[in-house]
Design goal:
The chain is an alpha/beta fold. It has 4 domains: 185 residues; 180 residues, P-loop containing nucleotide triphosphate hydrolases (Rossmann fold); 76 residues; 168 residues, Rossmann fold. The protein contains 21 helices and 26 strands. Strands 17-16-18-19-15-20 form a 6-stranded parallel beta sheet. It has a 6-stranded parallel beta sheet with strand order 23-22-24-25-21-26, with helices on both faces. Strands 1-4-5-11-12 form a 5-stranded mixed beta sheet, with helices on both faces.
Amino acid sequence: MPLAPTPTYGEKLVNKLLRDLPRKQYFHHYEPQLNTTDGRSSKPDFVLVAALMGVVVVEVKDWGKLTGGDQQLIHTVRSNGAPMSHENPVLTAQRYAYDLNRRFEQRVELWEQYKGRQRLKFPWQVMVALPRISQRVIEQFEKKGIWPRGVIIGKEHLRSAETLQQAISNLPWKFVLEQPLSLDMLDIVREVLNPSLVVQNEEGLPVGTLTQLQYGLINEPLRSAHPQQLTLFEYEPMSEETSDIPGSASVRLVRGVAGSGKTLVLVRRAQHLVAQYPQARLLVMSFNVELARDIKGRMRLPDEQVMVASFHRICRMILGEAWREPLKTREWLRQYERESLLALRLSAEFISTEFAWRKEMALLDDQQYLEADRSGRGQRLDKAKRETLNALFNRYRAYQAMHGYDWDDVAAAALAALNDRDDHPMRQAYDAIFIDEGQDFAPSWMQVALALLKPRGDLLICDDPSQSIFCSYSWTQKGVSVVGRTRILRVPFRSTREISQAAHSLIEADENLKATEERAEPDFSSYELGSGPMPALMACADSASETGFIDDKIRDLLAGGADPAQIAILCHAKWHVDKWAAWARQGVYVQYFEKMKGLEFMVVFVPHLQDAFPHADDPDAVSAARRKLFTAMTRARYRLVMSYQGTLPKPLEPLLDHMWCESVAVR
């Protein structure tokens, strides 16, 4: 938290020392507003939480000279010689501590039974810091019984974080913790001290607390604008040495496992910047329209404060009157090259992404493409297939020469429009740009984002390489250095522990996916994750039994009062979507995998798994399919049902140890 506009010398000193304490063991809050149920309100200088000891209420007094006192009043002298009397600061701190204890009483998670009575699971203490008073003088007051021993600390204990830490350890703690406070417990304490940390769901109900890392990312100062308060923050922002990319923009990559709160950080940071810097121009770029709609709904901010749009909508705004409807590569392939698709045994979707990758990597020459390293592309191609694809690509490029650009050329067209006009209204127009699902942004997309950003603007990117559905590029290929600028969120809060472990079993069983250098390892131990029913894996006799089973389950959910918008049917292939059109008309979310990015639902059905691996003999293709299924599975918050007809594909066998397996009879 920032200090007040006019902090005292003592508050600045104590704040600095508290910040320098080991961060894994301590955090503090400056002047928390403690409103209790009996109408009391108080504001201690600091509340320090020590995971190995308990909670400390800290009062700071900048008194220069003490002349005497008793247990009720302390007498001091001002710099001009005028005498002053003050309430004994121990009483002040104790009163604040009692108010804090009343706040703790409202959270049953913080209490336990001990020897037949209720007590906090951790002790609390008070401390008074007198940075201008020597310990020798303080000891004289202790000997007279005016102050309890060890509670008042003077300038000798405020020389460094180490001396302060020793003084905290020497406080007369009521009891000693048998084990450190859990992260769940620490987050509840943080929430009591700062209610703005509460995370709410769509109904406005509390569902969790921002972690310290999330809070720090949200509150990093904006470099391109002058803050309302140039203050100290508990979270250390990026240093200047590690924050610059060409053009002096500031980059932060938030990498996280599925459901770890990446989008939450993005939304909360945008809201924070709107509040702190109302004149700043902010832009949120998403991979697709549906994710943009979801983010906009969570953000609840008007367009004049934050523009939220899909990448291609932004490109359309950039091009303005020059915009024309792009060609669709897949439609051209299906219309003019159907026989080639059959001969290659490759889908139009796959070939269109191959063409897009070639354009991004500037592999326009036939020989360049034949010699190119395609590792990570999701499917291996022998030389004969590459030669056939060369011929296809050349015919398509000739068609384009007569009919114009396609969707994969839009980024290049938008970038040219920005670079060709110094007076373009969107060129270097934004103080901060936020990118969600950054793992699927191509290099040209990132160049557009950088062209929209002010030279000293802030670029926040959220990504998870495990969820990459489209072309995968390294951040080096994208022209953005993220070394030293990456923060990793490892705890999968969104889904139940059972769903998360089942989904990650697919990644762990895949040598390609497990070996991805940029992948974030999930952390299942630091927090007590929510639990729920085992995800189900249903073996269906035929199509009718699979359809009937899912229909029955959705009817039961709706009859029980479930919101249809919180139910999803996610299909690995686009042609399966029409099969569930009746449910889509009733409000159930029905889509193929490429459209589901960043979304979440209470209940998710993933059908038709029997044909999810058409190239089961190709390790790269298997990895790509597993990655898409992983993304689909982690859209589920509470309940996940997967189904297949006939025999379970071998690449899905790792799920058997993590899911409830059952057979569905013929209808």
